[in-house]
Amino acid sequence: MQLKMYRFPGAPVFDGALPEGYSLSNFAGRADVDAWLACCRDGLVADDAGVESFAGAILDESDVEPKRDVFFIDYHGEHVGTATCFINSDEGAGDLHMVGIKKEFRGKGLSKYLVAEGLRRAFDRGAPYVFLTTDEWRENAVRSYLNAGFKPVQYGLGMEDRWQAMLETLGVDSAEMVYEDATPYKTVYRTGLAKKFRFGVFGAGRGRTMMNYARESGSCELVAICDKNVELLENREKDFPGVKCLTDFEDLLKEDLDFIVLANYANEHAPFAIRALHAGKAVLSEVLPVQNMAEAVALAEAVEETGVPYAYAENYCYMPGPKKMRELYRAGKLGAFEYGEGEYMHNCESIWHNITGGDPDHWRNTMSAFYYGTHSLGPVLHVTGLRPVRVMGFEGPYNARMRRMGALGGPFGAELVTLENGAVVKSLYGVGPARNSIWYSLYGSKGRMETAREDAENGGTGKLYCNLDEHEGDNACTVVEADVTDDLSEKAAAAGHGGSDYHVMYNFIEKLRGNKNADVVDVWEALDMFLPALFAYRSVLEGRPQDIPDLRDKAERDKWRGDVACTDKAVAGAALQPSYSKGNPVIPPETYEFIKNFPRDKHITGADRKELGCPVEE
To answer: How many other CB atoms are found less than 10 A from the CB of residue 529?
Structure first.
């Protein structure tokens, strides 16, 4: 993606006299094509380019009339530079195009005359602004455009970072940046002067990805890491020398930080998020946002009362497939959304010892089958932007895998969710299935788009298949594999989770920068993603569908303010729900001992259990 720049009317356009011997002329016909090619070689067209290059760049532009819109700067009658400026009907603005100077005439400052002439022509025709695109390697051209009053445009991934680097290269301190819709964005500074957002991470395990982002991006600085696990902190201290390592969250709040990443236990995010928000620290919360309705109300009100930015790190929204789905859906390619499916079936038996440590009260061991549901439903909601209004849940039967893991909940939960437009979504998720499946499928009035299943031809959420009609009712039934890459794909690939973790951090930083186009999951969308699972389990316990509250409505919040029902006995008290709807199973103590003592750097297999005498009740 090229750099894009806008020039607005109002400010004076350069009106200096041409140097002696120089003049301006219009394109006169076929005889001028060779001169045009000579001006555009070594930069705009290849050195061996022919007439077809002129046709592609000029004649194929339906809005261009060459004798009106293509012009030259001449030296003693010889065409030595050219530019094209026309009214682009798609953009509704002036388009400054193919500004080129013959090699032997470069460095003489001639482009400013061509640019000024193009601006005058466009503004005389009533253009609200003139735009152009260019590349970073054309440093002199970019400098001349800035000098001519063009402003950088924030219109794509990584654009602010690229402009910071560009200004650094040019030795320009700052420039006024605008959005693609021509509204003001902000002052962007060269890299050496740009603000770096200072942050801390609470949770030295899962938070490793966010720590790594600071190394890769240059837009933020990791200041502190907080965790109660001293051994893990010591390892991170080696990985990130000079970063403070803390064991008390209160000490983390005292640091000079712009934001805090919450990567601690999933059942404890809400209370720490609320404390951070009231301390003036922006929050990026890992999964899950809350675990009961009382926390949901408290979190929503903390965001409202403080006005401090909050975002939810539902990284499956940013997998290549779902991310492309969102782009296509928002462009109208799917039509009206009608039905969707999301799956996050993750067989965790071989790694359970590593993530629970054999603790019977670990949140993963006490959660219900419906607890960890935003990975499956979240991307569907993020693609469509629709709110869930009603849900019915279905719980999978307790199985031997869950017993061997020491987990009390059902192996998976399924929910049927009705959205505000009447569309239906099936969401399936769990930690105890026999095989993995991470998959998303969306149906609309123009067709279907879906990712590959995790074990289908090695693609998973990195592949997206589209079967879409141009018009409703075409029924063309043509399947194509979409290109899911973007300008950040290469950088994101090394970040883990299919690049999604990189996009989570990138977009949160963009939000803090003030970019209105930052793709973040705010607190309301986070609750929309979580509440269907909470109420799906209630539907299982009560045997009937449940309405999903909209906590944007302050009156609705009062109904739930004291509702602490969940499977966490530390917060639920008398409202404690069973982990499994039919009653919690009894797990032999030996199971937890085996899990606690099994080496953390190995995966547990059935052979290990048999050899080491672990209970394997079926």
So the answer is: 28
CB-CB contact of 82 with 66 (8 Å): no
With contact defined as beta carbons under 8 Å apart, do 261 and 312 qualify? no
pLDDT attached to residue 474? 96
The predicted pLDDT at position 617 comes to 53
575 Cβ neighbours under 8 A, 6+ residues apart: 563, 564, 565, 566
Contact between 203 and 227 under an 8 Å Cβ cutoff? The reply is yes
On average, the pLDDT of the chain sits at 95
Beta bridge partners of 94: 87, 130
The structural domains of the chain, with segments of one domain joined by +, span 3-149, 197-315, 316-575
Span 421-468, pLDDT tens digits: 999 999 999 999 999 999 999 999 999 999 998 765 568 999 999 999
Predicted local distance difference test score (pLDDT) of residue 456? 57
**Joined tokens for residue 508:** 């949160």
CATH topology agreement for domains 3-149 and 197-315: no
Q: What's residue 613's pLDDT?
A: 76
Residues 433, 496: Cα–Cα separation, whole Å: 23
Neighbours of 607 (CB within 10 A): 8
Q: Is 466 helix (H, G, I), strand (E, B) or coil?
A: strand
Residue 2, both tokens: 């090229």
Closest CA to 108 of 20, 15, 4: 20
Q: Which fold has domain 197-315?
A: Rossmann fold (3.40.50)
Say what the pTM is.
0.94
For 172, the token pair is 């320009």
Residue 599 has a CB neighbour count (10 Å cut-off) of: 10
SS3 86: strand
**Whole-angstrom distance, CA of residue 230 vs CA of residue 207:** 15
- Cα 121 from Cα 68, distance rounded (Å): 10
Q: Which amino acid is at 112?
A: K
Q: What's the mean pLDDT in 566-590?
A: 97
Residue with tokens 């000579």: 38
Instruction: Determine contact, residues 432/348, Cβ cutoff 8 Å.
Output: yes
Closest of 440, 445, 446 to residue 464, by C-alpha:
440
**Architecture, CATH, for domain 316-575:** 2-Layer Sandwich (3.30)
DSSP string, 185-217: EEEEE-TTTS--EEEEEE-TTTTHHHHHHHHHH
- Between CA 42 and CA 49 the distance in angstroms is 10
For the chain, percent of residues with pLDDT exceeding 70: 99
Segment 23-32 shows an average pLDDT of: 96
CATH superfamily of 3-149: Gcn5-related N-acetyltransferase (GNAT) (3.40.630.30)
Tens of pLDDT, residue by residue over 330-386, are 999 999 999 999 999 999 999 999 999 999 999 999 999 999 999 999 999 999 999
Predicted local distance difference test score (pLDDT) of residue 24: 97
